[in-house]
Specification:
CATH architecture of the largest domain: 3-Layer(aba) Sandwich
Number of strands: 10
Bound molecules: pyridoxal-5'-phosphate
CATH class of the largest domain: Alpha Beta
Oligomer: single chain
Distance between the termini: 29 Å
Number of domains: 2
Radius of gyration: 20 Å
Strand content: 5-15%
Length: 348
């Protein structure tokens, strides 16, 4: 792996970015003196309360180290080993978690369903359930949706509700991988509740890292019954932080003044600008609708290598390929213009 040695801001991933000031400052405040351990501290209580306020409901909240743990433990909490989870072919739980959902659920199978631009559609969920109903098939139990998706698109409220209607008719639960939940809320201009519990979501994995924190995801159970003994599940999986306040304090810093949404809006706006600039370059193909903080480009191998040669980092293995350019809370307009300029020169 090559490394970024000059500290230059990149478009490879929103986790290339550092810690935003609001999260950093809250960690510093949490660092003043001693506090109770394992989540029994005022920061963790306050962070959970702020999440309940944000979602306008009495949900149950847990803080874990990362998204893979959040997703796989949340999914495991809803499944028996003979169940299955229906998700998109490009879902992180399917392609990027090294089998952790199957591992933590002791064998629950992930089944993929079709859909456009990183989403699954209600009909595909229906098909995954109906194609077999016999004893030999792993019984579908959960639908997992990613919001915003791995391909930078966003489910609208109506799309979520139509998935919910099918899920409900088959007695399936709904899990939402919200590694970029903030970007989805910013993109839709909706309230968090409209795309979660009001659209049938039972559990949300609310990502903090890509939004500007150092580390951490919140697992938010809207159906509190599903959270039973989840604390034991976290502990057994090595996800119970003894200095929990350093996982939870950043949430306080991000939620209290609205930084979580401000940063997501900024990242989305930078991706929109990048989209506008590169769309004007002849020969550059933009792959999916730009709805959150990334764009995907179809580049020739020559142009791709030349961009790498100019020091730009980006991934080309996500979803169906193409160069993924991802903006973060600290992406600047100059960064965007510099990249677009290089791309225009190299494409000429
Ligand atoms: C980044 C990401 C996650 C979490 O990944 P971790 O590296 O385990 O924190 C989960 N889902 C999606 C869609 C992601 O992009």
């Amino acid at each position: 792996m090559s490394t970024t040695t000059d500290g230059k801001r990149q478009f490879a991933s929103d986790n290339y970015a550092g810690i935003c000031p609001e999260a950093w400052e809250a960690m510093a405040r949490a660092n003043a003196g001693h506090a109770r351990s394992y989540g029994d501290d005022p920061w963790t209580a306050r962070a959970a309360d702020l999440i309940r306020e944000l979602f306008e409901t009495d949900c149950e909240v847990f803080f874990v180290f990362n998204g893979t743990a959040a997703n796989s433990l949340a999914l495991a909490s809803m499944c028996q080993s003979y169940h299955s989870i229906v998700c998109s072919e490009v879902a992180h739980v399917e392609t990027d978690e090294c089998g952790a959902p199957e591992f933590f659920s002791n064998g629950t199978k992930v089944l993929t369903a079709a859909g456009e631009s990183g989403k699954i559609d209600a009909a595909a969920v229906d098909w995954a359930v109906r194609r077999r109903t016999d004893i030999h098939y792993p019984k579908p139990r959960v639908v997992s949706v990613t919001q915003a998706t791995e391909l930078g698109t966003v489910y609208g409220v109506d799309e979520l509700k139509s998935i919910w209607a099918r899920a409900k008719s088959h007695d399936l639960r709904i899990h939402m991988d919200g590694a970029r939940f903030a970007n989805a809320v910013a993109s839709l201009g909706c309230t968090p509740k409209e795309i979660t519990w009001q659209a049938g979501v039972d559990v949300l994995c609310f990502g903090g890292t890509k939004n500007g924190m150092a580390v951490g995801d919140a697992v938010v159970f809207f159906d509190r019954n599903l959270a039973r003994e989840f604390d034991y599940r976290c502990k057994q999986a090595g996800q119970l932080s003894s200095k929990m306040r350093f996982l939870s304090a950043p949430w306080v810093g991000m939620l209290e003044g609205g930084a979580w949404l401000r940063h997501a809006r900024h990242a989305n706006a930078m991706a929109e600008l990048l989209h506008t600039l590169v769309s004007a370059i002849p020969g550059v193909l933009v792959r999916y609708p730009r709805q959150a903080n990334s764009i995907f480009l179809g580049l020739s191998p020559e142009v791709r290598d030349a961009l790498h040669g100019r020091g730009w980092h980006f991934y080309d293995f996500i979803g169906w390929g193409g160069a993924r350019l991802m903006c973060s809370w600290d992406t600047s307009e100059e960064d965007v213009r510099a990249l677009a300029r290089d791309l225009a020169e190299l494409s000429a």
